[in-house]
Design goal:
Layout: E1 2-6, E2 9-14, E3 18-21, E4 26-29, H1 36-42, H2 50-66, E5 70-73, H3 84-95, E6 100-104, H4 113-118, E7 121-124, E8 127-130, E9 133-136, H5 139-142, E10 152-155, E11 160-165, E12 171-179, E13 183-185, E14 196-197, E15 205-210, E16 213-216
Parallel strand pairs: 4-5, 5-6, 6-7, 9-10, 10-13, 11-14
Antiparallel strand pairs: 1-2, 2-3, 3-4, 8-9, 11-12, 12-13, 12-15, 15-16
């Protein structure tokens, strides 16, 4: 893990694709896309279910390690409509009913409101603020918020990745945390996702996740 401070708050960047907000005892994640493998199987694409189970177990392990009071999800907790994998999540949620789960809705979060209520998930349409931070799924949504210029934002959506070049023309792309002066883009928590290659500007900070380690690239 790597310590990182922003807006006077102490954060811990984890190679397991999450941030622990120490001052508020909160775990911050984005783009879990639970149910995605089941969605693919329903479409006739043979994606093994263990992919989903490994992501869920990784989340459980992080909760057991950090013991947060709250789980903040910056969008895309689920991938699509109801399937068997979401029933597994529902049973898992029942074992952690003491944990506050807060979801800032993403473009893939299309389940009925009643389902979120039954699983004890607090839902926010586009943004949610917790001084001194603002949380949203898409960075485009922060621009219209009245606190966008005074609160530091955490977003997801694009599944940021950074290319690391080797000898010759060889390069590999890795998921990353992407910090600008005004907002951070979180890596997709799900390992069953692609990445979008970011192009950092001057002053931006990028932390690549490589072989369960975090590498600061600038």
């Amino acid at each position: 893990m790597l310590p990182y401070s922003v807006s006077g708050q102490k954060l811990w960047l984890s190679p397991q694709r999450c941030i622990y907000w120490e001052d508020q005892s909160a775990l911050i994640v984005s783009d879990l896309h639970f149910g995605k493998t089941g969605h693919f199987r329903k479409s006739g694409i043979a994606v093994p279910q263990h992919v989903y189970k490994e992501d869920l177990q990784r989340l459980v392990s992080l909760i057991q390690y950090f013991k947060p009071g709250e789980l903040i999800i910056a969008g895309d907790l689920f991938h699509s409509h109801m399937n068997q994998e979401l029933e597994l999540f529902k049973r898992w949620r029942g074992d952690l009913d003491h944990l506050t789960i807060r979801l800032i809705m993403g473009n893939h979060d299309i389940l009925q409101d009643q389902w979120y209520k039954e699983t004890g998930i607090l839902v926010h349409e586009k943004t949610w603020e917790a001084t001194p931070f603002l949380f949203c799924h898409d960075a485009a949504d922060r621009s219209s918020h009245q606190l966008a210029h005074t609160y530091y934002s955490f977003t997801g959506h694009i599944h940021p990745g950074i290319s690391i070049h080797g000898t010759g023309r060889q390069s590999l792309r890795f998921p990353c945390f992407y910090f600008t002066d005004n907002y951070c883009v979180l890596p997709a928590f799900s390992r069953f996702t692609g990445t979008y290659r970011i192009q950092p500007g001057n002053g931006d900070q990028v932390f690549a996740i490589v072989n369960n380690e975090i590498l600061q690239l600038n």
